[in-house]
Amino acid sequence: MYRNAARLLLVLCALLALSGCAGLTTRDPMRVNLVRLEPLQGEGFELRFALKLRVQNPNDHPIDYDGLALQLDVNDRTFATGVSDARGSVPRFGEAVVSVPVTVSALSAFRQALELGSGADLDRLPYTLSGKLGGGPFGVQRFSERGTLSLPAAAGGNP
């Protein structure tokens, strides 16, 4: 009797393991690109922006998300952070533009201004964008992107 119960348990465990492996599919990483920053109303000593992201899904099934969090580093220093409780879906083999409100603290803005004033190249500012899309059937989807920003130079002393 114990031998039959052990065999049955072994067969059930094997079936569960096989069905679990079948549910695991190879997923290509999503691509996230910084599209633009749009100014928002800030409070006190902080700056606020709507950071627009283009999320591309190179997979055969949609990416559903419920919430976003991100950090934008410029010149290897944290510049802006943001969170959003937005929900949405990026279609299979498709893309979506997602907006996330971000905050730049006065200290971050001051530090960046000092570095830019000390001869930093305004045409090639390195940045790193990292974050995550929350929720969905595959859990958290993390992303990271590196690139360079080009800021317009002040002409003739005018801002």
Helix-strand topology string: HEEEEEHEE
The share of residues in extended strands comes to over 45%
Instruction: Calculate the mean pLDDT score and round it.
Output: 82
How many distinct helices?
A: 2
How many individual β-strands? Answer: 7
Structure summarized in a few sentences:
The chain is of the alpha+beta class and 159 residues long. 21% of the residues lie in helices and 48% in strands.
Commentary on this structure:
The protein is an alpha+beta fold and 159 residues long. Helix content is 21%, strand content 48%. The protein contains two helices and seven strands. It has a seven-stranded antiparallel sheet. The longest helix is centred in the first third of the chain and has 22 residues, at 2-23. The model is unreliable at 154-159 (pLDDT under 50).
Which helices and strands occur, and which strands form pairs?
Blueprint: H1 2-23, E1 31-40, E2 47-57, E3 63-74, E4 77-90, E5 94-104, H2 106-117, E6 125-133, E7 141-149
Antiparallel strand pairs: 1-2, 2-5, 3-4, 3-6, 4-5, 6-7
Give me some keywords for this one.
159 residues; alpha+beta
